[in-house]
Amino acid sequence: MAKTQPYDFSLLHKFAIEDTYIVLDINSGIVHSLSKEAWDFLEGWEQAGGDLEQATALLQTTLPLGELEEIRKSFEELIATGALFSSSTVEENYAPRDEQIVKALCLHVAHDCNLRCKYCFAGTGPFGADRSLMDLATGQKALDFLFAASGPRRHVEVDYFGGEPLLNFNVVKELIKYGKEKARETGKILKQTLTTNAVLLTPEIIDYLNQEDVQLILSIDGRPQVHDQMRPFISGKGSFALVDQRIREYLSRQKADTYYVRGTYTHFNLDFCEDVLYLVDRGMKRVSLEPVVASPEQDYALQEEDLPVLKEQYARLAEKWLQYYREGKPFQFFHFNIDLNKGPCLLKRLSGCGAGNEYLAVSPLGDLYPCHQFMENKAFCLGNVFTGIQNQALREDFRQAHVFNKPECRGCWARFFCSGGCHANAYHFHRDLRKPYELGCELQKTRLEYGIYLQVKVWTDRQQEQPQEA
Amino acid sequence: MMEKKVHIQTINKQNLVQTVQKGGCGECVTSCQSACKTSCTVSNQDCQKQ
Q: ipTM for the complex?
């Protein structure tokens, strides 16, 4: 009998959570849930160096022959349909497109803030430059630039950002109106979001933003003491009481459920799962809580030795997510949101966040940067909204910083989920766009495993409810 | 009669390799714009075509 080639297990990612055994076929993105016997088969197969005949022979002592044959046949069927050990030629042929399109702007309408958050990457508002507000003419010019630079794209996006954008609400209001007019004129679909600390979010402003379909991203860190420790007012007093009241007012007045409340966890609240649950139990059903990104010398920075605790927290959060889901009170945790069937195409996953290309940030004076996290770093200025993009070489650097050009990413199982991670983190930790931030990678991979695990659990629950669809 | 045990269940049908043919329209949401201003998670966006 001709010897078959051993199967390459670097094409798979397999992991077990509790009694759930999962294998991800990396290139196809297809996920399989395995019985314990099939998992043992796969383990034995890998230990046999990928040799299927050898694995089958070895496993005859541990699995009944009929079962062994059945499992093997199932695996072979998956291989034949490209759902296991699938290969891809995309890497060999991939060249990121140079379309010169900008479809999303992070509009820094205020480089000032009414809070003094201790971990703020914006240096409490001005990003190391002067405290300033964007004027209406610059904002309008930015929108003109976006609508022109988006070329054939129908969907365009603006996030009103800061600092605190509500410090410049009159201009924001005019820009919302102006953006809508431009969308009407050009036949485009404009999505407008506003990221706010909620301090100035009065009922009148809430109603206005709801009426104009502006989606809100509201910052709150969780339990009062956790929030107050890191997010004080200028006076030093904690902002939780007001922010919490404002956000709950917002929740009571909105119907679209397009918001996110987002927070940051730090070394001071490694038990961040409690913060997520605290927010959820207060009615905030769409939550994102993200790890702080900070220089290791900061006392609030996450350290490598925090990883085991953080991983346990994601495990606990996943169990709670499932419990709430099964009790009929589901919530969304942004980093667990993975839709395995309707997710982005591979080309999107390769182009990543689009910073420096499709996505740019605009300073109050109209200068263009690759994203909000490079704001006011003059070495990263791409041009401005009045004269357009001048620094094409920098744009090309960002375009080429994709997973296939990052040695650490090329062999990583998560490469088509995270797209190589955040450019800003890579730069700030390593001064190299192609060298990912390791701690961020570890957390990302943990979140992805739990996100996939939850998809498997939900799918299994649904199958049990409706077995005829299996 | 005892029910036959299913050893492998495939959770999703979308095959990323095949999305290369029809994908890349660029109409999807920018990943860092919503709820994710300090981390990058591209896979949790939805495809606008589906």
A: 0.92
